[in-house]
Design brief:
GO molecular function, one term: unfolded protein binding
Strand content: 15-25%
Shape: elongated
Number of helices: 5
Radius of gyration: 52 Å
InterPro entries: GrpE (IPR000740), GrpE_CC (IPR013805), GrpE_head (IPR009012)
Organism: Thalassobaculum litoreum DSM 18839
CATH architecture of the largest domain: Roll
Strand order of the largest sheet: 3-6-7
Largest sheet: 3 strands, antiparallel
Number of domains: 3
Family: Belongs to the GrpE family.
CATH topology of the largest domain: Nucleotide Exchange Factor Grpe, Chain A, domain 2
Helix content: 40-55%
GO cellular component, one term: cytoplasm
């Protein structure tokens, strides 16, 4: 029995890919080493190419973000500029028309001054000195008010003899006047007033109803 135990074992099977004395084949370790060396079964692995592609994608994403932020910044600047301009326009409008309500309240007073002067006799020589002084005082008052109006860009509209304008005039009645072209203002009951480019009050007028047509309305019958 002892002789059998000391007897060398029979020949062992040998791996076709493993030579005697070599370590067992480790396929996973070989693949890891090949990858670290940039090798594969097909040859070189383009590890740098993969990194380059990822870097290009990231750069493109960042460029897109920069473009988006730049667009937002430009829009914000444009909005701020529009707000500034609108605020300036509103301030200018307020400055120009701040006196509009006061001016409207004064219009009737100015009209009454004019009516008082129109009702005064044309020949003042026969009038008492006190009456003359009152008339002169009314004239001076009207002049001062009109000067103040002029200072604040309030312009009186007296359209006698002008073509009727719906934007500036209010027709109170029509008058038969063959000597005037239709639509001509033949009487002004109350003047109008304009503050800058805004109408405070339309002129109240009487308009010619008939008569000779305007030159541009005449028909050429010589043809």
């Amino acid at each position: 029995m002892a002789n059998d135990q000391n007897k060398p074992a029979g020949p062992q099977p040998v791996n076709d890919q493993q030579a005697p004395g070599e370590a067992p084949y480790d396929q996973a370790a070989e693949a890891s080493l090949a990858e670290s060396l940039g090798l594969s079964e097909e040859g070189l692995i383009d590890t740098d190419g993969g990194q380059t592609d990822a870097r290009d994608v990231r750069i493109a994403e960042l460029e897109e973000q920069v473009a988006h932020l730049k667009d937002q910044a430009l829009r914000a600047l444009a909005d701020a500029e529009n707000l500034r301009r609108r605020t300036e326009r509103e301030k200018e409008q307020w400055r120009k028309f701040a006196s509009a309500d006061l001016a409207k309240d004064l219009l009737n007073a100015v009209d009454n001054l004019r009516r008082a002067l129109d009702s005064a006799p044309a020949d003042r020589d026969s009038l008492d000195d006190a009456v003359k002084n009152v008339i002169v005082g009314v004239e001076m008052t009207e002049k001062e008010v009109l000067n103040a109006f002029d200072k604040h860009k309030i312009v009186r509209i007296n359209p006698l003899g002008e073509k009727f304008d719906y934007n500036l005039h209010q027709a109170m009645f029509e008058v038969e006047d063959p000597s005037k072209a239709p639509g001509t203002v033949v009487q002004v009951l109350a003047p109008g007033y304009v503050l800058h480019d805004r109408l405070l009050r339309a002129a109240m007028v009487g308009v010619a109803k008939g008569g000779k047509p305007d030159d541009h309305e005449r028909v050429d019958t010589t043809a």
